[in-house]
């Protein structure tokens, strides 16, 4: 009889607002993941912004609108963000997953995100063996979230900050997950075209069936309290389809609806109160509205609305956030390439003065009825309902004023458990807690089934470790490309096929050297004073006759450059004053000694004329350029050397090798390594190494499990191996690190990247603290920094670099925003080492001397340090809340009262008789 029943929402329409009511001027590339790229809470919504692999999120209020091109973005991850999920209980808390193998929990302040890169996650889960794909918060239990990674579902306990359970579902990648309405089971679709229903507390799948005919992307949602699920996917003929399923009988689907051929997956959203399904395809510009009814056909099509732009992603607001006084029953946030459109679903009514209760049944509240520990121990529950009537609606819950529901940290009397609503048939013991943030590593947990839930007193969990948040003075740095008049453009025939051991080019304060793809190993030399467009003809170059592998300018002689070659030779060239005018084929001299190709060359940081070179023959040779002889040969490598680095004091050399070993040499005392550490397993693909924190730490870049990684080693205890690591997503290029010793900032990027990441390096654990990122519109082939003396402290510029793309070379300035820029920011600019001149000759260094560089101030003579600036007097408040009468004594108040009464009675007024003159007393007689 459902066909004769009139729906309350049959006249509902999707309204697209005017452009000024949308969020415009944003930039969104096509995110590549199984997520919907938008997640909504009742106060904020979060979406992917910027480049597809930039790892940045935009955080907006649900009612925000207008131009947001300069809106600060949250630098959440180092790689692609795969999914975002808001907590249904705390409207300021959300989770983000990324292919950098981390899941982070964020808490948004009431004011929103106000500064890019200035926020740290509340906690971090990391170390997943496979990429985290999809997040789904438990519908009933607080602080419990399911994560699909590979073919497993992991339950993250956000309060206890550990991985509570593992549930193996299938051997292929899971594409989507959805909890049942009561939170007992979870449904999942996978790349092997199947639908699974699993009970995580048992730790295994319950039932499975073939869902769709194509392995392309798929989705699954729960259809409220009907106990049914719906999936979207593709048929064998690549047509999109929607299927309805009853988990009690998966032999066949209840209904199938096809939506034509397209490449974008259908993103489904369900309103359990109105029983409406919304479908939006990625890349489509339409929105389909369907209704779930009781009858032969479970789902009936209602309407379709054209949207103003193609959808990159979409999310639906919780029912607690809709505007009930305008008859808005739902709101979807459409993520487009240049804008975010709030699509409102409204039911027309004549009057908007009163709350229309028939459109808004009681909805799920944010009241907590079940903790994660209760659910894990076998207890089930049901969400409480609340009215959407504005006159009775409660305020939204946020984490700052949320009640504490975690288990006690110290041994105490067990708290009274929540009264069971419906006990589970079987429950699994919680897995051992995984470490979080500084040592969070989700491990394979054992699935142990028990016949009855353990008593609450036996499920005591340790208190989460307290975390110290480090606030860096450089966390708000900004990278700015300088004016186009300073660019060098039209670079011809750039060689982009050099190995990862080469920076791609090299630069000093006067000229730049970059390899050409022409035969003969040409290295072009160009003066930085000749900015603008290069001529169409080949630039003047050095002809090396063999393929170039690396090049380096002498730090103490801006005219000398050393070039490593594939034939094992090193050629040293002298550039005449004014630069090259033509192709030069005669070098100043060459160094021969390696039996295989040269991997990299490095000049000594303090001594003039000392050059170190690493070769594929597994040796490191140290050359005296004054005598043009090989002075020292370092051995001990068991495979090809990947990279070498001098310590800042010039005493030691660190090397990275394909045998996954990090070695430290004292070249003047021994030809064998004095310390050895084990590096990442995937480091044989390529890597770099750099010293940090006054040579207390070594930082390497390499690969692990297919993802790029930077790792930290303690020089004083190399036997520990890695003391800390950071995943930076998957990419074939080697990360090239640069360490700025004055700000203790580590910059890392790779060839072919568009994003440069940065970290503050601390000598104490934790060593790495993520800072801001710099993103460019083109892929770069190299990124090199100039000496500190080239920076402009008047503009609070703490670093300057040159970025090389295929055809352009542009300068980039890194600054820290400050208010009192008329003062020298001495807290940002300590005295720096003067590395413009050598401290020793080559012979002095070989004889064992260690003369360190003197330090100089970069403060301009006409600037006063900020530390000496006069302190400003406190400004008077516009609205002063201080009331002096509040602090008067009783005696003072009494005197004021008597004085006021005297004034009213005019007791001090002069009387007429006071002015009259009297007579003497004897005159009265």
Q: Can you put this structure into words, describing what you see?
A:
The protein has 925 residues and is mainly beta. The chain has a domain at 635-771: Methylamine Dehydrogenase, Chain H, CATH 2.130.10.10. 3% of the residues lie in helices and 37% in strands. The chain contains three helices and 69 strands. The strands form 19 sheets. Strands 1, 2, 6, 29, 30 and 31 form a six-stranded mixed beta sheet that branches. A hairpin with a 3-residue loop joins strand 39 and strand 40 (511-515). The longest helix is centred in the C-terminal third of the chain and has 16 residues, at 890-905. The chain is globular and about 105 Å long. Mean pLDDT is 83; it is low at 401-469. WD repeats lie at residues 74-116, 591-633, 634-675. Its main location: cytoplasm. Residues 913-925 have a biased composition (Acidic residues). GO terms for molecular function: actin binding. Residues 3-66, 467-532 form the DUF1899 domain.
């Amino acid at each position: 009889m459902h066909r004769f029943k009139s729906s309350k929402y049959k006249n509902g329409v999707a309204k697209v607002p005017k452009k000024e009511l949308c969020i415009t001027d944003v930039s969104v590339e096509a995110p590549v993941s199984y997520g919907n790229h938008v997640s909504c809470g009742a106060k904020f919504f979060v979406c992917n912004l910027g480049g597809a692999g930039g790892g940045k999120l935009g955080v907006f209020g649900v009612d925000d609108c207008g131009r947001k091109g300069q809106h600060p973005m949250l630098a959440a991850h180092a790689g692609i963000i795969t999914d975002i999920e808001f907590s249904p209980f705390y409207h300021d808390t959300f989770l983000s997953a990324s292919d950098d193998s981390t899941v982070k929990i964020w808490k948004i302040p009431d004011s929103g995100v106000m500064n890019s890169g200035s926020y740290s996650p509340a906690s971090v889960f990391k170390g997943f063996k496979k990429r985290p794909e999809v997040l789904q918060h438990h519908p009933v239990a607080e602080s419990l979230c399911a994560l699909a990674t590979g073919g497993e579902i992991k339950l993250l306990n956000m309060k206890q900050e550990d991985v509570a359970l593992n549930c193996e579902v299938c051997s292929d990648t899971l594409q989507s997950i959805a909890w049942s309405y009561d939170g007992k089971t979870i449904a999942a679709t996978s790349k092997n075209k199947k639908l699974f229903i699993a009970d995580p507390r048992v730790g295994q799948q319950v039932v499975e069936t073939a869902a769709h005919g194509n392995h392309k992307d798929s989705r699954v949602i729960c259809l409220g309290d009907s106990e049914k699920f719906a999936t979207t996917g593709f048929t064998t003929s690549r047509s999109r389809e929607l299927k309805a399923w009853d988990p009690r009988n998966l032999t066949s689907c209840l209904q199938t609806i096809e939506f034509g051929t397209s490449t974008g997956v259908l993103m489904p959203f369900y309103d359990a109160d109105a029983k409406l399904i919304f479908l939006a395809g990625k890349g489509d510009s339409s929105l389909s509205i369907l209704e779930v009814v009781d009858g032969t056909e479970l789902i009936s099509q209602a309407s379709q609305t054209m949207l103003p732009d193609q959808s990159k992603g979409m999310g639906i607001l919780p029912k607690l956030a809709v505007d009930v006084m305008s008859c808005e029953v739902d709101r979807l946030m459409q993520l487009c390439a240049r804008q975010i459109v709030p699509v409102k679903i409204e039911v027309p009514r004549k009057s908007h003065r009163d709350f229309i209760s028939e459109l808004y049944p009681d909805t799920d509240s944010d009241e907590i009825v079940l903790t994660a520990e209760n659910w894990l121990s076998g207890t089930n529950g049901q969400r409480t309902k609340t009215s959407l009537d504005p006159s009775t609606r409660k305020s939204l819950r946020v984490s700052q004023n949320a009640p504490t529901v975690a288990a006690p940290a110290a041994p105490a009397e067990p708290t009274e458990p929540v009264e069971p609503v419906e006990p589970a048939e079987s429950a699994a013991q919680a897995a051992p807690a995984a470490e979080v943030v500084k040592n969070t590593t989700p491990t394979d947990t054992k699935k142990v089934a028990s016949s009855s839930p353990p008593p609450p007193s036996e499920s005591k969990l340790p208190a989460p470790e307290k975390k110290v948040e480090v606030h860096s003075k450089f966390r708000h740095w900004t990278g700015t490309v300088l004016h186009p008049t300073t660019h060098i453009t039209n670079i011809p025939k750039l060689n982009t096929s050099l190995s990862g051991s080469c920076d791609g080019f090299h630069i000093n304060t006067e000229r730049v050297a970059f390899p050409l793809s022409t035969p003969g190993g040409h290295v072009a030399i160009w003066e930085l004073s000749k900015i603008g467009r290069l001529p169409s003809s080949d630039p003047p170059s050095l002809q090396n006759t063999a393929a170039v592998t690396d090049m380096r300018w002498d730090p103490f002689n801006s005219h000398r450059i050393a070039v490593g070659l594939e034939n094992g030779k090193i050629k040293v060239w002298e550039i005449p004053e004014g630069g090259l005018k033509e192709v030069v084929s005669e070098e100043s001299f060459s160094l021969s000694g390696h039996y295989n190709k040269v991997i990299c060359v490095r000049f000594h940081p303090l001594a003039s004329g000392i050059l170190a070179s690493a070769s594929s023959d597994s040796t490191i040779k140290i050359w005296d350029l004054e005598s043009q002889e090989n002075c020292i040969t370092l051995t001990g490598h068991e495979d090809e050397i990947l990279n070498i680095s001098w310590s800042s004091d010039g005493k030691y050399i660190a090397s990275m090798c394909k045998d996954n070993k990090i070695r430290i040499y004292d070249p003047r005392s021994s030809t064998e390594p004095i310390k050895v550490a084990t590096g990442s397993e995937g480091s044989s693909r390529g890597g770099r190494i750099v010293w940090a924190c006054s040579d207390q730490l070594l930082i390497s870049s390499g690969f692990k499990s297919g993802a790029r990684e930077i790792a930290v080693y303690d020089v004083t205890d190399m036997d520990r191996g890695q003391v800390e690591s950071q995943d930076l997503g998957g990419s074939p290029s080697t990360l090239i690190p640069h360490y700025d010793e004055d700000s203790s900032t580590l910059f890392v990027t790779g060839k072919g990247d568009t994003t440069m990441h940065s970290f503050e390096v601390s000598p104490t654990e934790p060593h790495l603290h993520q800072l801001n990122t710099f993103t460019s519109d083109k892929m770069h082939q190299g990124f090199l920094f100039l000496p500190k003396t080239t920076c402009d402290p008047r503009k609070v510029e703490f670093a300057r670099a040159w970025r090389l793309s295929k055809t352009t070379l542009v300068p980039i300035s890194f600054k820290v925003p400050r208010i009192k820029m008329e003062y020298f920011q001495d807290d940002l600019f300590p005295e720096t080492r003067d590395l413009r001149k050598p401290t020793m000759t080559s012979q002095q260094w070989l004889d064992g001397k260690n003369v360190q560089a003197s330090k100089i101030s970069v403060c301009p003579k006409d600037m006063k340090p900020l530390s000496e600036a006069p302190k400003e007097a406190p400004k008077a408040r516009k609205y002063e809340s201080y009331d002096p009468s509040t602090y008067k004594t009783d005696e003072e108040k009494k005197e004021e009262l008597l004085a006021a009464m005297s004034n009213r009675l005019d007791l001090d007024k002069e009387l007429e008789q006071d002015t009259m003159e009297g007579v003497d007393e004897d005159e009265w007689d």
